[in-house]
Amino acid sequence: MRTKLPLRTKLQMRTKLQSFWRDTDGAEMLEWAVVTAVLLIVTIPIILAIQDEVMLFYERIFGAMEKPPPGDFITPVTP
């Protein structure tokens, strides 16, 4: 059984719907959400694909930092 809404309520609902339809702030936020989602979808597989190379790169750097520098690394300054 459907109840009839008063005319005033119908007009209020219509006004709110029209203002919602004309509002563009939500559209811009949605655009940025889509851009963010696309960037995540594209970058996550790339990061996962190069993960091993990046880890190896940093392991080499940290391994080199753990060793003492060679004797001729610092040359004495002669006056």
Oligomer: single chain
- Which value, in Å, is the CA radius of gyration? 32 Å
- Helix percentage: over 70%
Strand tally is 0
Strand content: under 5%
Main sheet characteristics: none
**Helical segment count:** 3
Average residue pLDDT: 84
What structural class is derived from the secondary structure elements?
mainly alpha
Unreliable residue runs: none
Taken from the alpha-carbon principal axes, the silhouette is rod-shaped
Rounded to the nearest angstrom, the distance between the terminal CA atoms is 103 Å
Summarize the structure.
With 79 residues, the protein is mainly α. The protein has three helices and no strands.
Question: Can you characterise this structure?
Answer:
There is one protein chain. By secondary structure, the protein is mainly alpha-helical. The chain is built from three helices and no strands. The model has no long low-confidence stretch (mean pLDDT 84).
How are the SSEs ordered, and which strands pair?
Elements: H1 7-22, H2 25-49, H3 51-66
Please supply descriptive tags for the structure shown above:
79 residues, mainly alpha, 3 helices
